[in-house]
C-alpha cells in the first residue's frame, strides 16, 4: 500500500504549518509570512480592498498582503489584537497603523511609556515601541472584521512561532478583546504553558499568571480599542493606559 503523499510546500493551505515553525528569527518569520496565501477568502478580500480603496486614500498603493508583527525581537511585553484593519494595517503594512483604532491604541501606549509617539500613521513615521511587540492572531484583513474559526486556526502557526521566538524575554501579554484571548489559549498550551483550571476568562482588567517553559507569563485583558468601544466609553484612554502601565510593571519593561 503506498504511503500518503508528504505535504506540498507549495500548497497554499499548508504554507503556515510548513513555513512558520522553522523560522529561525522574527525577521525570517515576517519575510515568510507576507507571502502567505493560505486562506482564499482573506486573500480575495485583502486584495479587493487594495484595488477599490477608500476615497481618502485613492492615490495610495495599498499593502494588501499579510501584515507582520511590529516591535523589537527582545520584547518582554506582547500586545495581542485581532486582525489588520481594511484601511489601516491592510493599507499601510503595519499593525494598528493608519486608522482611528491605532490612534487610540498608540495614545495609550505612549502614555504608558511604551511607544515613542502618540500616533501610528505610516511605516515611515518614526514610531518605535519600547520592550513591546504587537502580535496578531490573524494577519489578513477579514470581511466585517470577523475571521472564521478555520481562518484563525490556519493562521495560528505564525503567532505560535512568533511567541516562541519571543519566549526567552517575554514576561507579560495584554490581549485586546475576547477573540485574541480565545485564540491565544491553544497557542500557550502547545508551547508548554500550564493554564490554570478553570481557564482564565477574558474581561477588561482580567489578570492571570501562567507558568511556562521560560518562566511565568502575566496575562492581562483589555477591551479592544475599536471605535465601537471607544466612542461609547466602554473603553477610555485612562482605562487602556492603566492596563498597559500594569503590564509594563509586571513585564519588567524599563
From TrEMBL:
<keyword id="KW-0378">Hydrolase</keyword>
<comment type="similarity">
    <text>Belongs to the uracil-DNA glycosylase (UDG) superfamily. Type 5 (UDGb) family.</text>
</comment>
<keyword id="KW-0479">Metal-binding</keyword>
<dbReference type="InterPro" id="IPR036895">
    <property type="entry name" value="Uracil-DNA_glycosylase-like_sf"/>
</dbReference>
<keyword id="KW-0004">4Fe-4S</keyword>
<dbReference type="GO" id="GO:0033958">
    <property type="term" value="F:DNA-deoxyinosine glycosylase activity"/>
</dbReference>
<keyword id="KW-0408">Iron</keyword>
<keyword id="KW-0411">Iron-sulfur</keyword>
<protein>
    <recommendedName>
        <fullName>Type-5 uracil-DNA glycosylase</fullName>
    </recommendedName>
</protein>
<dbReference type="GO" id="GO:0046872">
    <property type="term" value="F:metal ion binding"/>
</dbReference>
<keyword id="KW-0227">DNA damage</keyword>
<dbReference type="InterPro" id="IPR005122">
    <property type="entry name" value="Uracil-DNA_glycosylase-like"/>
</dbReference>
<dbReference type="GO" id="GO:0006284">
    <property type="term" value="P:base-excision repair"/>
</dbReference>
<feature type="domain" description="Uracil-DNA glycosylase-like">
    <location>
        <begin position="68"/>
        <end position="244"/>
    </location>
</feature>
<dbReference type="GO" id="GO:0004844">
    <property type="term" value="F:uracil DNA N-glycosylase activity"/>
</dbReference>
<keyword id="KW-0234">DNA repair</keyword>
<dbReference type="InterPro" id="IPR051536">
    <property type="entry name" value="UDG_Type-4/5"/>
</dbReference>
<dbReference type="GO" id="GO:0051539">
    <property type="term" value="F:4 iron, 4 sulfur cluster binding"/>
</dbReference>
<dbReference type="InterPro" id="IPR044147">
    <property type="entry name" value="UdgB-like"/>
</dbReference>
<dbReference type="Pfam" id="PF03167">
    <property type="entry name" value="UDG"/>
</dbReference>
Amino acid at each position: 500500500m503506498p504511503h500518503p503523499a508528504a505535504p506540498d510546500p507549495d500548497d497554499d493551505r499548508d504554507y503556515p504549518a510548513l513555513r512558520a515553525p522553522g523560522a529561525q528569527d522574527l525577521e525570517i518569520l515576517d519575510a515568510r509570512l507576507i507571502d502567505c496565501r493560505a486562506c482564499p477568502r482573506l486573500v480575495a478580500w485583502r486584495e479587493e480592498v487594495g484595488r477599490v480603496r477608500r476615497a481618502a486614500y485613492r492615490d495610495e498603493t495599498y499593502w494588501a498582503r499579510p501584515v507582520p508583527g511590529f516591535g523589537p525581537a527582545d520584547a518582554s511585553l506582547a500586545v495581542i489584537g485581532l486582525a489588520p484593519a481594511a484601511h489601516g494595517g491592510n493599507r499601510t503594512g503595519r499593525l494598528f497603523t493608519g486608522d482611528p483604532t491605532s490612534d487610540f491604541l498608540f495614545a495609550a501606549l505612549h502614555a504608558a511609556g511604551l511607544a515613542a509617539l502618540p500616533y501610528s500613521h505610516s511605516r515611515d513615521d518614526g514610531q518605535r515601541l519600547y520592550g513591546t511587540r504587537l502580535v496578531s492572531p490573524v494577519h489578513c484583513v477579514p470581511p466585517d472584521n470577523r475571521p472564521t474559526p478555520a481562518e484563525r486556526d490556519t493562521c495560528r502557526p505564525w503567532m505560535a512561532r512568533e511567541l516562541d521566538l519571543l519566549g526567552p524575554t517575554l514576561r507579560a501579554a495584554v490581549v485586546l478583546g475576547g477573540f485574541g484571548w480565545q485564540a491565544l489559549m491553544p497557542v500557550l498550551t502547545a508551547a508548554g504553558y500550564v493554564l490554570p483550571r478553570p481557564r482564565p476568562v477574558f474581561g477588561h482588567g482580567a489578570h492571570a499568571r501562567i507558568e511556562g517553559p521560560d518562566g511565568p507569563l502575566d496575562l492581562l485583558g483589555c477591551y479592544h480599542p475599536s471605535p465601537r468601544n471607544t466612542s461609547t466609553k466602554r473603553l477610555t484612554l485612562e482605562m487602556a493606559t492603566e492596563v498597559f502601565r500594569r503590564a509594563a510593571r509586571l513585564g519588567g519593561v524599563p
